[in-house]
Each structure stands twice: as C-alpha cells, then as structure tokens.
Design goal:
GO terms for molecular function: transaminase activity. Keywords: Aminotransferase, Cytoplasm, Glutamine amidotransferase, Repeat, Transferase. 44% of the residues lie in helices and 16% in strands. The chain is α/β, with parallel strands linked by helices. The protein has a 5-stranded parallel β-sheet with strand order 4-3-5-6-7, with helices on both faces. The chain has a 5-stranded parallel β-sheet with strand order 9-8-10-11-12, sandwiched between helices. Bound molecules: fructose -6-phosphate.
C-alpha cells in the first residue's frame, strides 16, 4: 500500500505531480482559457464582488491560506485576512452579512475550523470550503466548496494536501480575477498555462532528493533550524519549519527574512543551519542581502534557488535548485525540497515519520 516507498509520507511527497494534476483535471484547460469550478457556482458573484475575504484554517492549511492571501490580493485586489480558526472562534470576530469566509482543511474534521465556520455562518457569512476528504464535516457545513482531490493522505505530516490546496486556491483566485477584470486576459492565459506546467516542475524538484538526503545527513543532529523567505516564499518558510518540528522534533522557526534583524539574528552562529528560500522573484535582491547578513555571522546557509542561479551558490554552504515559475506559483515548487529535507532528517533520527509523537491526523478536539 506504500507503493514501494518506505513511508507514506515519502510516497505522498512523490505523488505530488499526479495529485496536483488530479486537482485541476476537468477544471483547467489552459489552451482554450477554460477554468471551471463547479463547486462555486451559486456564490461566484458574491465572491467576485466581495469586499473582503476571511480565511480560517489550522497548521499547514493555515500556511496555504497565507499564500492565498497574497494571491487574492495581487490577482483580485480583494483584502484578505488569514486567521487561526482557534483564535477566530473565541474573539467575537467582526463578520458582516455577505462576507466571504473560506475554510481550508485536509481532513475536513478539524474541530476549531468547523466551529469557526459555524460561527461565521451564524453571523451571515457565506462559507466556502477547500477540503480534501469528500463528504467530511467541513464539506457538509460549507455553503459551497472545491475539493482538492489529492487522494487519501495517510502520513500525519501534510504534504500533497498542501500543494493541492495551493492549486485550488490559485484556481479560485484566477477565476475571480478574470470575472472581475483585475487581471488582463493575456496575463490570465499565461497563468493558466504556467499552472498546467507545475506538475512537471514539481517532478523536476523531486529529482533533488539524493542531494537533499546528503544535506540532511550533515544537519540531522542540529538542535535548531531557521527558515527564511520573503513574499510568496514567506509561508513556505513557515511550512518548512513546521515539517521539521513535527516529524524530526528539531526546534525550527520560520520567519520573513527581513524580520531577522528584529530578534532572531541573535541566534545565528556556526551551529545554526538557516534554510533560505531564495528563488528568483521580485524580492530576490533583498533576500540576497539577508543571506549576506547570515553569512557575516557564520550561519550555515542552505539556499533553495532557481535553476541557473549563478550568484547565490558562491555565497552559501549548500544550494538546491528548483525550476523557475511565476512568483505566485513558486510555493508549490519550493516546498518540495523542504518536505524532503524534513523527511530524510526524521528517518536519520529514527523518528516515526508517519505517526509522530503527540500528533493525530485529524484534530477533532479543540
Ligand atoms: C501539519 C499538519 C497539521 C494540519 C492541521 C490542520 O503537517 O498535519 O498542522 O495541517 O492539523 O488539519 P486539516 O487540514 O485536516 O484541517
């Protein structure tokens, strides 16, 4: 059942080219500009005209929500707030009649997310679900929703569900931007084509596996690890850190790279591995300076860079190359080596990768 892989997590990591394709199958046909989301028909207008969107989720799904915030704001010019479901539900949040609330959940059973949705509904919000498990509680409570169709995710650490969530949220944002006219036809078309090319790019990113494993061997005994990113890659840093914490029990923190000088830079010394997501995008020059700041303090830098980068490899200790894509789609590609890194480190530390201590696949208690 693990399809020849040693763990479900590794199988699920390697399934991503297929799970992303399954996610847009029948929905996205780039060469004729087609994007059909049957799951949001009735509320498509409400979404297009929304004055604001609130996203509620937990854990990895919350990280997908953060990427979606940047995407919706850039593509659709709709203000987005991303909330931990557990915080939202207990603080009498301001929700107006007709506000759009999007709940993101792999399992569809997360108690806090479910309660946040019910609260939003009781205040008159339109609640849309982005769920992996068909027929789950969250999918039943939503007014409408889009399934991620990533297939069953068995490993407790979420991997393919995350990239499928990003795929669905990107499709929703593109659909809204197109209807709203906030994205020109040509740009819209080029995004559809680029989205269609993501499975092949993920496939290529998976080829870093052997190299990532060698890097894992060097850092497996670290006690701490810092993950830095900017813009669309900031949530990728948070997600990379969460993956390392939950399955290898190494303390890790994700930070927006520019925040480093406001505190975490004090942690950096020769012992501190710093994973920097430094792909070529609009914040490239800024992240290069952040790398210099870390190197000046003798931190060990592992950089995720775009193919062909000739600058960063000369500055850092290790580089992992991934194929380039549009900034907004980079999280789907850049997250792959980070999933592999946490996986290999956990295996080398003899951790129970698929069932880490203290964690459950569905968190049905608050
Ligand atoms: C991380 C992880 C958890 C879940 C969180 C939300 O790898 O598995 O952080 O992402 O418990 O779960 P869902 O998406 O099922 O609501």
């Amino acid at each position: 059942e693990k399809g020849g892989f040693e763990h479900f997590m590794l199988k699920e990591i390697f399934e991503q080219p297929k799970s992303i394709k399954d996610c847009f199958r029948g929905r996205l046909i780039a060469n004729n500009g087609q994007l059909v989301l049957g799951g949001i028909r009735e509320y498509a207008n409400a979404l297009t005209n929304a004055e604001r969107i609130v996203i509620v989720a937990c854990g990895t799904s919350w990280h997908a929500g953060l990427v979606a915030e940047y995407i919706f704001e850039e593509f659709c010019r709709i203000p987005v707030e991303v909330e931990y479901a557990s915080e939202f539900r207990y603080r009498n949040p301001i929700i107006r009649e007709g506000d759009i609330v999007i709940a993101i959940s792999q399992s569809g059973e997360t108690a806090d997310t479910l309660a946040a949705m019910e609260l939003a509904k009781s205040k008159g919000a339109i609640v849309l679900g982005v769920c992996n498990v068909v027929g789950s509680s969250i999918s039943r409570v939503s007014h409408e929703g889009v399934y991620t169709h990533a297939g069953p995710e068995i490993g407790v650490a979420s991997t393919k569900a995350f990239t499928a969530q990003l795929t669905v949220l990107t499709m929703i944002a593109l659909r809204v931007a197109h209807r709203k006219g906030t994205m020109a036809e040509q740009r819209y078309r080029s995004f559809l084509a680029e989205l269609e090319s993501i499975p092949a790019k993920v496939e290529k990113a998976l080829k870093t596996d052997d190299q990532v494993k060698k890097i894992a061997a060097l850092f497996k005994d670290s006690r701490n690890c810092l993950y830095l990113g900017r813009g669309y890659n900031f949530p990728v840093a948070l997600e990379g850190a969460l993956k390392l914490k939950e399955i290898s029990y190494i303390h890790a923190e994700g930070y927006p790279a520019a925040e480093m000088k406001h505190g975490p830079i004090a942690l950096i010394d020769e012992e501190m591995p710093v994973v920097v997501i430094a792909t070529r995008d609009s914040s490239y020059d800024k992240i290069v300076s952040n790398i210099q700041e870390v190197k000046a303090r003798k931190g060990k830098v592992i950089a995720i860079v775009s193919e062909g980068d000739s600058l960063i490899p000369g500055m850092v200790d290790h580089t992992i190359e991934v194929p380039g894509t549009h900034d907004a789609l980079m999280p789907m590609v850049a997250t792959i080596p980070l999933q592999l890194l946490s996986y290999h480190i956990a295996v080398m530390r003899n951790c129970n990768v698929d069932q880490p201590r203290n964690l459950a696949k569905s968190v049905t208690v608050e």
